[in-house]
Structure formats: structure tokens, C-alpha cells
Amino acid sequence: MRHFPRGGPGPGRGEGPRHRAVLPALCLTQIASWGIVYYAFLVLNPAITADTGWSAGATTAAFSAALVVSAAAGIYVGRVLDHRGPRTVMTAGSVLGTLSLLVVAAAPNPAVFFAGWLLAGTAMAAVLYQPAFAALTRWWAPDHIRALTIVTLAGGLASTVFAPLTALLADHMSWRATYAVLAGILAVLTVPAHAIALKAPWPPAPPSPPHVTRGHEGVVRSRAFWMLAVTFTLSAFAMYAVVIGLVPLLIERGYTPAQAAWALGLGGAGQTLGRTLYATLARHLGVTARTVTLIALGALTTAALAAVAGPYALLAAVSVLAGVIRGNLTLLQATAVTDRWGTAHYGRLSGLLGAPAHAAAALAPFAGAVMAGGLGGHPDLFVLLAALSAAAAATALGTRTQPAE
What SS3 state is found at 14? Predict the structure, then answer.
């Protein structure tokens, strides 16, 4: 793994007390933001459709549209992050996220509900992983992998904390009141945390590594960048379609919904475990080898889920392994720009690189369900998804930026 020169001392090297609150603050705000703006919908959607009479397809389309908007808005957010840092972006995103959920809660018809989620999509771009990763990459280099790992471990707790809390609230009040309460929690936990804890000066952009001779525009035009974008897009589509499709796959094979849910939950535990292993992997494999290896392993676990019908313990074990790979892929994407092109244009490049992958992830649940119907079932869908992951591993071979990598 290459280490590029950095500009100025970072918190990983003890810069000063103003940075000490950044990491715990971002851990807190990632749990709250993911838990409230993202996961709460998955819990509340049945109540929304039952209360309003709106179709599940319409409400899910609004949520998917928010994810697509988040992908597109991330490009602009990345540019702002490079120049101004995360404080204004993430504070404004927290305020917008609060307002968007209040719009959703008060929506009298599907059109207003849809508009609320479009606002929420813009907020997601400003408060979820992308700006947090940009902050830690600039402030914590060269120890950014440790900081990124800690924040993603915290983010992994979002569903653990807020799915049960959302369900508890929904048991005692309407879905509209639940969203109003959650919006208040989001405001209290994230607005002051972003406004106060992210006040540290934004360091000037460090110099680019020697092989980056034409700035970010040269990087964006390079073959390696486009191959990496294709790689992450294919991988993201396959990965999210697998996550959404695992429960129906197991139910088709005769397992109970409870058994299927447990297998999915064990995969989530594996994802947390995988994130703790990434730093060790990064020390032993170069960036291209790491990318090819992880995505190829993702293809293998997906193929195993397609091929193995039982026993249940074996399927659960494969689900855990698939989760381990997913956990590593999150950090692989967070470090992809830094490992290849340094940190000088991290926000802009990560926004451009992530936009098609995030859009693919947003469309994967719907597209996966349609393809499963056309293919005759989820086992055949998983075969196709394994092939897509294998194709992503092949395109990853073209992401090498220099022979010495």
C-alpha cells in the first residue's frame, strides 16, 4: 500500500484538542443519521401504506428516489467539502434532514410525500458517509483507516439502535408522530454535534502524488478512474440485490421467515467483523490486488448462496462470510481515492466515483425483484449477481494507476 505525502500534521499525530471531539461526534451522528433518515423507513413503511392506502410501490419509489438524489447531490457536496470542509455541509444537512422528515410526516398526499423524500435525499448526501469520510481522510491522515473503521463500526449500529426504537415508538403512536419524534431526535443529536465538533480549521489540500500531473480533471479522464467507477457500480448493484434478496431466497427454499431473518442478521454481524479486519488486509495487499480479491470473494459467496440449499447452518455461515466481505467493501470504497490519487481532491473524486454506485444500489432492490420474477426465482437471480460481481472483479484489474502499485 502506498503512502502519499500529507499536508500538515493531522489528529492521528496529535494535532490538538479541537480535533478530539470530531471522531466521537461523527460516530454519534452517523448512528443517528443512518438510523433515522434511512433505516426508520424500512420499519415504518408497512404502517404508512396501511394508514394512507398508498401502494407500497409508490412509497418505496419515493425512498429509492431519495437515494438516487443523494447520489447526484454527492457530486456537488464533494466539491464543497474539498474547499470548505465538513462543518457547514453536515450542519446544513442535519437541518435539512430534520425538515424533510417533518414534510414526510405531514404529507397529505403521495406528491408531498415524494417531495419530502427528495429533500431527504439531498440531506443524505450531506450527512451520511461521504462527508464523514472526507473529514476523517483530511484530518486523520495518515491514520485515516483506523478512524474510518471506527466510524463505520459505529454506523453499523444504526439499525441495531434505531430499528427497535422506531418500532417501539410506532407501537404507541402513529407513523406520522413517530417520524416527528425521530426528526426531533435527529435535530438534537446531529445539528449541535456538527456545528460545534467540526469547528477545527480545514487544512489546505496536500500535494498530489507524483503520478497525478493534471489535477482532478486528469484523474477523472483516466482509464483507471472509469474502470473503478464501473467496478464499484457493478459491485454495488450485486451486493445490495443480494442483501435484499437473501430473505426471499431462503423462504423459496422452505425456510421460515424467522430463519431467513436470522441469516440476514448474522450477515450484518459478519459485516461488523469484516470492518475490523480491513486495516490488516490493507497492510498486506496492494490497492489493486485488494480490490480484485474482495470483489472476487463477494462473487464466490453469492455463487455459494445460489448453489447451497442447506443445511441451514451452512447457509448461515455463508451469510456471515458474505457480510465480512461487505464490511470490507465499505472501507475499500472509502479509501479507493486516497490509495490511488492522494487526498488533495478526495471530496470531488469520491463524489463522482460514488454517484453511479449509489444510484445502482438504490435501484438494486426493485431491479432484483423484477429479475427474480423473470428468471424464475431467486437462486437463478443469485447466479446472475455472482456473474456481475465476477465481471466487477475483472474490471478491477484495470484500476491500476502505476506499475509500482
Answer: coil
Smallest CA-to-CA distance from 315 within 266, 281, 363 is with: 266
Cα–Cα distance for residue pair 295/219, rounded to 1 Å: 23
Report CA torsion sign: 10, 14, 18, 22.
Answer: positive
What one-character DSSP code corresponds to residue 37?
Answer: I
Report, in angstroms and rounded to the nearest whole number, the Rg of the chain calculated over CA atoms: 21
Residues 6 or more apart in contact with residue 15 via CB below 8 angstroms: 8, 9, 139
Q: Do residues 18 and 29 lie in contact, with contact meaning Cβ atoms separated by under 8 Å? A: no
- Given this model, what pLDDT does residue 366 score? 78
**Each residue of 248-280: pLDDT tens digit?**
888 888 888 788 878 887 887 888 888 888 888
**Could you say which DSSP state residue 19 is in?**
G
DSSP string, 96-118: HHHHHHHHHHH-SSHHHHHHHHH
The upper half-sphere exposure of residue 348, i.e. CA atoms within 13 Å in the direction of its Cβ, equals: 17
**pLDDT digit string, tens, across residues 297-307:** 999 999 999 99
Residue for grid cell 437473501: 246
* Residue 398 CB neighbours (<10 A): 14
How many other CB atoms sit within 10 Å of the CB of residue 264?
17
Would you state the pLDDT for residue 3?
41
- What pTM was estimated for this model as a whole? 0.81
**DSSP labels, 307-366:** H----HHHHHHHHHHHHHHHHHHHHHHHHHHHHHH-STTHHHHHHHHHHHHHHHHHHHHH
Round to whole Å and give the CA distance between 157 and 153.
Answer: 7
Residue 168's CB is within 10 A of a number of other CB atoms, namely: 12
CA-wise closest residue to 342 among 138, 202, 81:
138
CA trace torsion 335, 340, 343, 346 (10° rounding):
-70
Q: Whole-angstrom Cα distance, residue 158 to residue 184?
A: 17
> Contact at 8 Å (CB) between 97 and 127?
yes
| Eight-class DSSP state of 209 | P
In angstroms, rounded to a whole number, what is the distance separating the alpha carbons of residues 134 and 333?
12
Least confident interval from 8-22, 27-41, 117-131, 164-178: 8-22
